[in-house]
Write a structure and sequence with these properties.
Number of strands: 4
CATH class of the largest domain: Mainly Alpha
Radius of gyration: 21 Å
Largest sheet: 4 strands, mixed
Number of helices: 8
CATH superfamily of the largest domain: N-terminal domain of the delta subunit of the F1F0-ATP synthase
Mean pLDDT: 86
Number of domains: 2
Shape: elongated
Order of helices and strands: HHHHHHEHEEEH
Oligomer: single chain
CATH architecture of the largest domain: Orthogonal Bundle
Low-confidence stretches: none
Strand order of the largest sheet: 2-1-3-4
CATH topology of the largest domain: Peroxidase, domain 1
Strand content: 5-15%
Structural class: alpha+beta
Distance between the termini: 55 Å
Helix content: 55-70%
C-alpha cells in the first residue's frame, strides 16, 4: 500500500529534524526548507525540475543555484533523493511538517486568525497577546480574510476553533431559537 504524501513528508521531516538537532543546524534547516518551498511556488522552476529531458545533474543544479553555495550538505542529499524518486511534490509538505516539529520543540503554537476584513497592527498585536496569555506559549499567528464572517474573528489553533465572528454568533442564536432554548 502506498503511503499518503503527508505521511511520507512527515517521515522525511522527522528524519531531517533529528539530523538538524544532532548537527545543531535546526534554524538553518528551517530557513533553507522555507526557501525550497518558496522556490517551488514558481511554475517555471517546477517545470524545469520535472522535465525528464533535462539530465538529473542539471535539475539538481537549479536548486543549488538558489542557495549560492550555502546549502547544507544533508539538504543537498535530500533534494537529490526527492528529485531522483520524482517526488518533488513532497518538498512543501516536508517544509511544513519540519516547521510544525520546530514549533512544537520551541513551545510555539501556530494559530490562524480569520477576520471579515484586514486587521490593523494594533488589533493583531492585541490578539496575539491575548492568545499567548490564554495558551501560555508563544503564538505564531497567520492572518486570513473571509468576508463571509461579516465581522469579528475566528481563531484556529490545531483542532481548536475560537469563534468570535458575527456569522458564528448568528448561527448559535439560530440554533438556540430552533431548539426552543431561547429565553
Amino acid at each position: 500500500m502506498a503511503r499518503l504524501p503527508s505521511t511520507t513528508a512527515r517521515r522525511y521531516a522527522e528524519a531531517v529534524f533529528e539530523i538538524a538537532q544532532r548537527d545543531g543546524t535546526v534554524e538553518e534547516w528551517l530557513e533553507q526548507l522555507d526557501r525550497v518551498a518558496a522556490a517551488l511556488s514558481d511554475e517555471e522552476v517546477v517545470r524545469r525540475l520535472e522535465d525528464p529531458a533535462v539530465p538529473f545533474g542539471e535539475r539538481h543544479a537549479v536548486f543549488r543555484a538558489l542557495f549560492k553555495s550555502d546549502m547544507l550538505a544533508p539538504l543537498d542529499s535530500l533534494l537529490g533523493i526527492v528529485l531522483r524518486r520524482r517526488r518533488l511534490e513532497l518538498l512543501p509538505g516536508i517544509a511544513r511538517e519540519y516547521r510544525a516539529l520546530y514549533n512544537r520543540n520551541a513551545g510555539v503554537v501556530e494559530a490562524t486568525a480569520t477576520s471579515a476584513g484586514e486587521l490593523d497592527k494594533a488589533d493583531v498585536k492585541a490578539l496575539r497577546e491575548r492568545l499567548e496569555e490564554m495558551t501560555g506559549a508563544r503564538i505564531e499567528l497567520r492572518l486570513a480574510v473571509d468576508p463571509a464572517l461579516l465581522g469579528g474573528v475566528q481563531v484556529r489553533m490545531g483542532d481548536q476553533l475560537l469563534d468570535g465572528s458575527v456569522r458564528g454568533r448568528l448561527e448559535r442564536l439560530r440554533e438556540r431559537i430552533a431548539s426552543g432554548s431561547f429565553s
